[in-house]
Structures
1.
Amino acid sequence: MPYKLCTYSCIYCQLGRTIKMTIERKPFYDPQDIVRDVAETLAQIKGEVDFVTFVPDGEPLLDLNIAAEITGIRHETGSRVAVLTNASLLYQEQCRLDLAEADLVSVKVDAASEQVWKRINRPHPSLRLSEILEGIREFANTFKGRLITETMLVEGFNDSRDEIRAIAEFIASINPHKAYLAVPVRPPAEPYATPPPPEKLVEAYNTFTEHIGRDKVELLNMPEPPPETLHGDPAQWILSTTSVHPLRYTYAVKLLEEKGENPEKLLSSLKEKNLIRIVEYRGEKFITRTY
Ligand code: SF4
C-alpha cells in the first residue's frame, strides 16, 4: 500500500497518524509485480514459511486487487496466505468475497460500542460500527479458513469492565480459532496510548476466557521476539521492515552484525538521508521510517 492510506487512524498505530483517510478501494500496483516480488523473496529464504502475510502500511482491503494477489501468491509459491485487516470494509459484500480467498484472516475488534470505537480507532466519518460488526459476523459464518481476532487494549479507552465484556461477547459469537489481546509495545501514533495496568490486563484476560474459552485466548503483552534473520540487502531490509512497524534498535544491531555490517555506519547513513529516525518509547530505542 502507498503510505499510509487507511480507513482508521488508531491512536496506537505504529505507523503514525493516517495521512490519507479513505474508504475508496483502488488498484495500487500490478498484482503480477507483487506476486513476482514475493516469489523472488521466498526463493531466497531457507527453511519453512508458515504464511505469506499481508501486513501493509494501511488497510489491505483498500487494495482492489487483493484477491488476485492472494490467489496469485498461493498459486505461484504454494504458500498459505494470511491477511491482517481492521475489518472496517467487511460490511461490503465484495470485500468479504475478496478476503475469503485467504487461508488465515485476522480481524481487529477493539471496541463493541460506537463511542469507544470512535475514540480508539478514529474511523472515517462514513463508517458505522454496527455495520462493521455485522460484516465480521457474516464473514465468520462463511469463511472456510482460519479466523483470528486481535483486540488492542489501551489504558482509559477500551479497558473498562463493560466494554471488555461486550467485546468478549461479540468475539465469542463469531467463534474464532484464537482471540488475541494485545497492548502497545512499540511507539504509538499518540504518546498517550499506553498499556492498561497489569490488574486490568488480568481482568480482561479472565473475561475473555470466560466467554471465549481458555484454550482460545492469548495475551500478547511482551515485546515481539527478534526477527530470525535479515533477508536481501541490509539497508533495504531495514527500510522495508520499518515501513510496516518500528524496529527495536537492539534487534537491528544484532542482525546487521550477523551479516558482517557495521550497524552504526549503516544506520547513520540512513538517518543522514532522512529515511529513518531513532525514537524512544518506554525506555527503549526504536528505528522508525520517515516519509
Ligand atoms: S493500526 Fe491498522 S487500522 Fe489502525 S490506523 Fe494503523 S494501519 Fe490503520
2.
Amino acid sequence: MSQFDFAEAFEQARTAPDVTDRATGLEEADRIGGVALVQARLHGQGAEFCADCDEPIPDARRKAYSSAVCCVDCQGLREGRRNG
Ligand SMILES: [Zn+2]
C-alpha cells in the first residue's frame, strides 16, 4: 500500500455526499491504511493506541510524530522487518 492510495481513498470517503458512500469509503480506507490510520486522520492526530500491539502511544510521541500509528517498539520492528 502507499500513503497516496490511502489519502485518496480517505479523501473520497470524507467528501462523499452520501452517508452510505462515506461509510463504504471509510471501510475501503480502513482496508488500505488500517483502522488506526483512519482514526488518526479523522481526529487530526496520531493514533492513541498502537496499531500493532494496542499499547497506548505516549502523548510525547504523538506530538513529535503526529502521524505515528504505532509505538516506538513496533515502529522499530516494522523498520527492522522492512530492512531485512
Ligand atoms: Zn506497539
3.
Amino acid sequence: MERIKLEMKKIEIEFPGVKALKGVDFETVGGQVHALVGANGAGKSTLMKVLAGDNTHYAGQIVIDGKNVEIRSPKDAKHLGIEIVYQEVDTALIPYLSVAENVMFNRMVNDMKGRFLVDWRKMRLESQEVLKKLRVELDPDAIVGDLTLAQKQMVLIARCMAGECRMLILDEPTAPLSNAETEDLFRVVRGLSADGVAVVFISHRLNELYEICDTITIMRDGRNVVRMPLTK
Ligand SMILES: Nc1ncnc2c1ncn2[C@@H]1O[C@H](COP(=O)(O)OP(=O)(O)OP(=O)(O)O)[C@@H](O)[C@H]1O
Ligand SMILES: [Mg+2]
C-alpha cells in the first residue's frame, strides 16, 4: 500500500448563516497520527467531513500524492482510500447482522453488483483476517447489537480496513470509552500507523494526544491556528 500524502489548502465551507471554515490549511502523511483539536464549533468535524465526501460544497484545493483531486461524494473519498468513523457508531451498523457481515458490509454490497449470491464462507474468513490483522478479538459470528460501544467502534474500524484504506479519520473516538477501552483503541491506532495508514484523531483530551499523536493541528473559529510536532 502506497502511503498517502495529503494537503488541503484554503478550504472554505459555508452553511446557511455560518461560515464554518474560513480558509483552512491541513496536511498529513501516511504513518502519522495527527491530532486535530479545538473548542466546540471550531470546525474540526466540518473539515474532516470534506475529506470523507460528506461536505461536498467546499471551496479550496485538495492535493493527494501531488495531484489535485475533487471529493464530491463519499464514493470519491473511498476511491482515494479515505475513511471516517463518526462518533454515532450505531447509525453506521446493522444491529441484527453479525460482526463478519458488518465488517464486510461495503465489500458485500459492491460484490453483489449484478449477482444474487454472497459467498458467506469467504466473507466470514476475510473478516477474520481483517480482525486478526488489527489484533482485535471479536467473534465474527457475534451479533453486533449485543456488542459494547467500544467493540462496535472496532467493527467500524475493521470495516474501513477491509477496503483499501490509506487514511482513517476518527472523530472523537475516545469520548465514550473507559480507560481500558481507550488503551485498546490506541493499540489498534499504533498498529495502523506502523502499517503506513495516516490516522487523524479528533479529540478534546490533551493528555491522551501526547500519548498517541505525533503531530497536532489546532483549530479556532474556522481557521487552523497552530501546526506542530508533538514531542514525547
Ligand atoms: N450541517 C450543518 N449545518 C449548519 N451548520 C453547521 C453544520 N455542520 C456544522 N455547522 C456549524 O459549523 C461550525 C463548526 O462545527 P463543527 O461541528 O465542525 O465543529 P467541531 O470543531 O467539530 O466541534 P465539536 O468539538 O463540538 O464537535 C459550527 O458553528 C456548527 O454549528
Ligand atoms: Mg465535531
4.
Amino acid sequence: MKIKPRLGGGKSGDPSLYIDIVDRKRAILFDCGLNNFRPAALHKVTDVFISHTHIDHFIGFDALLRLNLTEEKIIHVYGPPGICRNVIGKLQGYTWNICQNLRLIIVVHEILPETIVVTSLESWRGFEIKQTEEQPHTDLLLDTGEFSVKYLELDHKTPCFGYTFLEAESCNVRKEALEELGLQPGPWAGQLKAQAFPTADQDAVIQIDGMNYSLDELARKLLVRKPGVKITYLTDFLLHEADIARIIEFTRYSDFLFCEAAFIEHEREKARLTHHLTAREAGILAHGAQVKQLVLFHFSRRYQDHALMLDEARQEFPWVE
Ligand SMILES: [Zn+2]
Ligand SMILES: [Zn+2]
C-alpha cells in the first residue's frame, strides 16, 4: 500500500493527523481539530480516532460531517469514555427535519475499560440512535487485514488515547532472483504473492508459461518480506515515570512518531499543570522506541520560534522534524 501521513494544523495549529491510504481510496484520521484538508480528502475518511474531546481535537468533526452527509458510507468514530455522548451532542446541535436525502451512517465505538459500546446513528433518521451493542474490550480497534489500529491510554487529567497505525507485512518479488531463474514478470507474480504469503501450501503448484513450479519453493527463492509502515500518534499527556516503558513498547520501531511537544523543558511546570509533554520528553520517547522519524506538533502558541522545541528534542534524538 502507499501510505502518506500529514498534519492538518501544522506545528502549532489544532491536532489532526490524516493518514492517506493512497491506493485504496481510503483515509483515516487521528483527531479532528480545525484543519486545512480539502473536501476531496475528507470524503475519503472512513475511520476517525479521537484522542480526547478537548475542542482543539474535535471541532473539525463538524466539517467532516457536513462534507459526507449525502455520501452512502459509514464513518466509524473511536474514542475514550464519553465519546458517544460527545458525538450525539454535536449532532443534536443541528435540526434534522429534512433529512430524507441524507445517506451517511455514523458508528461510534466508545472504548470503556471492560467493554466497547458500539452505537449506530443514521442521518436519514435525524441521527436517532438506531442500535447499541456491546463488544468485548480489545486494544485492537480496527483490523482490515491490510492494516490495523491499536490504542493506548494516556493521562491528560482525563483519559486520552494514543493510536498506532500498522500496515500488515507484505512481500516483494526479488528482481535478481527472477533473472537467475530465467522467468519473465507476469500476472503469475501477483498470484504467487497472494497464495504463498505469509505461508504457502507445501503441495501447491503454480503454472508459468505452461510449466509447473512448486509454489513453496518459488516463494522461498523469489519473495522477500516487507515490513508494514508503522505510524504512532501521541498527544496531550503527562509523562509519568511509571508509564515510559509501556509507551515505548507501544511506539517501538515506528516509521513515524507524531508526538506533541507543547512546551520546552524550561517551562516544565506549565507542562505539568496542563498535563502536556515537553519537547525533550518527546525526544526521549523517540529515542527509547527507536523510531525512524519524530515529527513534533501541538506547539504552544507562546513560542514563535519553533527551533526551540526542535533543537531541544534533537538533543535526545537526531531525526526530528
Ligand atoms: Zn487536551
Ligand atoms: Zn490539545
